[in-house]
Amino acid sequence: MRPPSLPSAAAVVATAPPVAPPAPSRWPAGVPWLLATQGVSGLADQALLLVILGLLQAQGWPAWWAPLLKLAFNLAYVLGAPWTGRWADAVPKGGLMAAMNALKALGLLALLAGLHPLAACLVVGVGAAGYAPAKYGLVCELVPPARLVAANAWLEVTVVGAVLLGAGLGGGLISPGWAAGPLAQALQAAGLALAWPPAQTAALLPLLALYALAALLQRGVRESGAAAGRPAGPGAGDDPAVGPAPDPSAGALRTFRADAARLWRDPLGGLSLAVTTLFWGLGATLQLVVLHWSTGHLGLALHQAAWLQASVALGVVAGAWAAGRWVPLAAARHMLWAGVALGACMPVMAAVDRVVWALPLLLLTGAVGGLMVVPLNALLQHRGHQLLSAGRSVAVQGAFENASVLLMLAAYAGLLALEVPLPALMTGLGLAVSALLLALIAWDGARRRRLLRTSG
User: Long-range pairs for 415-423 at CB < 8 Å and ≥24 separation?
Assistant: First the structure.
């Protein structure tokens, strides 16, 4: 399916992104089911990471294993990016989502059977990596551009809501009360010879039920009707500023490199991809930083720290809702200032040592993050869908965002191993984020002024 011809890069930057006529008030059929499926499956993913972390902590594993678990989960997004986008374009997206959800459940079953936790996280990560292009691509196909920010806001609410509830659920499953509860007692009485003790097995089994529930909800997700297996041909959507459109019939690696180069060279696509890449790397690191900070500086137990971590996700939900309601696609770039505020919150957080002050600060941190990422994520999907295709553009986005996650988590693990004080680490990270966002704001402003002078 060939995308429509694109305007020149100068025209794209000098004017607002194209906006479709007002869309109907109701969502297309299947979108609510898609949101529900994503929410339940993501809930299981997030809780699983926290539960595995609790299992390792109970067995005395060192703290630097925590970022390695997240690193293993996100590794598949980067390594599989040249193929996952092509798969999402070549097959019905609902079917692919169902298959990837089944793979996640298989990874959990393998963990119960004795697979190493890092390997289990990698298997679940493969399922999540294949799930993402299908999910976001289906949204781009079902929802018109006029409602894409709102759709992304709701999708982001389900993603971050899964983080929020996953933190709470994971904290509950590794709490002493659950470890001594009826399920653990029943497993103890049954004498099942599983790889983990009954109390730890009892923390994993409810997550298997969540993957099964996601499979049931998946049956309500409808296909968009867009042709599968026929992505844009060579020359479709050529633009002198970003180069000719890649030929999707070429090899996977070659096509992926061309897709990435085309998206980065696009003025709006490159800006939004840079911001979302930075945000998701920071967000993944911040999840673990909050846990470490809560247990080390606020004196909370791990299951209590998980609830405090959830306050960041609650703030992101509030910011995402506000962005979906009040920020149009044409104003997405103005939300870069929210990213500057996000970085500024981290040095303040490093100085806090009481829960009563930590809670509102974490809520504020999440809210400014949601305000920034939702409009820019919608802008990136809009441009990526025009320049490439739904699956291929999301695969490029996922590769760079998760490469950022891997780099930041590896750096975080290394700094922990070197015993760098956490307040210094948090302050340095926050200031670096604010400086990078200010540099992007200055670069974007200078580029727009230059293009306006050229066009005038």
Answer: 416/63, 416/64, 416/67, 416/292, 417/64, 422/289, 422/292, 422/293, 422/296, 422/297, 422/350, 423/297, 423/350, 423/351
